[in-house]
Amino acid sequence: MSDTIFHKIKNREIPSEIVFEDEHVFAFRDIAPQAPVHVLFVPKQDFATLNDVPADSPEIIGRLATAAATYAKREGFAENGYRIVMNCNGDGGQTVFQIHLHLLAGAPLGHFGA
Ligand code: 5GP
């Protein structure tokens, strides 16, 4: 997999505030936020799309979700609520081909699809 903009953020080659990091996951604010809080959670192991994650490694995706929940609790909006989304390929609207989970929060987001 070739380098993406997210590799450059992880390696601090381009400026972006890392708001969460552990052994497996790093997270930073989306450059074009779609909600008052819009953070992207990225695994340190590289996969272009969700289709590339081995079926016997569900922990790679699970860690993104639990990192998002940990961040939401730490920042104090977990009880109000939030949304997590992962886009896959063209019809899913994926534009950066390094898997990432969107965390959206900070306002009522409405019913999905409404
Ligand atoms: P996707 O459409 O692939 O699910 O989401 C990619 C996200 O990456 C978009 O929401 C887009 O705004 C964000 N993004 C693209 N380039 C940059 C960048 O250079 N810095 C940051 N922080 N976010 C970016």
Automatic annotation (TrEMBL):
Residue ranges of the TM segments: none
CDD domains for this protein: PKCI_related (cd01276)
Domain of life where this protein originates: Bacteria
Residues annotated as domain HIT: 5-114
Protein name as catalogued: Histidine triad nucleotide-binding protein
